[in-house]
Amino acid sequence: MLASIEMRYLLIVMILLAATSCKKEEVESQSSRTYMDVELKNSFSYTQGSYWVYQDQSMNVDSVILSNSKTGFTGTCPDNACTHYEYIELTFENVSKGYEFNHYLMLDFVRYNGGGSFGSEGQPIYLLNSNQGSAFNGLLVGEKFDSLTVLNEVYYNVEKMTVVADMQFQDEFDFDIDFYFVPTIGIVRTVIHDTTNGSITWDLKNYSIQ
User: Cα 16 from chain centroid?
Assistant: First the structure.
């Protein structure tokens, strides 16, 4: 009789364990992975040691170096029932002014000082393959130039992106700011529309992509 009870108890435990295992597999199957656009990755992801030197209209120089690069997928959502997005986090050091910032690549856009468990932090500064006038969390897609001359250097396939200060998703910039992006090179011109002291233009003077 005792043996029969123990057998029934063991059988119940095995059934419960099997049910729990099936439920766990079912929950895990609800999560998925989404990869970023290959064009974005190829155009604006660089290796550690790359650097960019900029010069403004007053001949001041500003240097930026890529100090770290990290890749992965966004964190776990409740019950794993969500999508994990591939990201690349590029950490830059502004050598001239002594501070760090990042470019956070995910899906088809780049965020400034992005990150977080779900990749939702950061101010968007670039949106891939969007029409002029498109807007995204304070980012306004501007003109596309076949070519643009910056400090006597001609760059091709230039895209202008504008962050509207009053519409920022995450407050990062004090004034409206224009970024001019070139695939595989990065930002070749930045225009800060300082309403107090006048606009400042930083042009790419020298760079090395590792």
Answer: 44
pLDDT digits (tens, 9 = 90+) for 129-171: 999 999 999 999 999 999 999 999 999 999 999 999 999 999 9
- Burial class from Cβ neighbours inside 10 Å (0-12, 13-18, 19+) for residue 3 reads exposed
* Cα-Cα-Cα-Cα dihedral sign, residues 161, 166, 168, 174: positive
Only one residue has tokens 């660089």, namely 46
* DSSP 3-state of 165: helix
Apex 202 CA angle, 199 and 206, nearest 5:
170
Tokens of 83: 């999508």
pTM, to two decimals: 0.84
Helix (H) or strand (E) run with residue 17 in it: helix 2-29
Residue 23: its H or E element: helix 2-29
**Residues pairing with 202 in the sheet:** 56, 190
Q: Are 84 and 32 in contact (CB under 8 A)?
A: yes
32-34 and 83-94 strand pairing: parallel
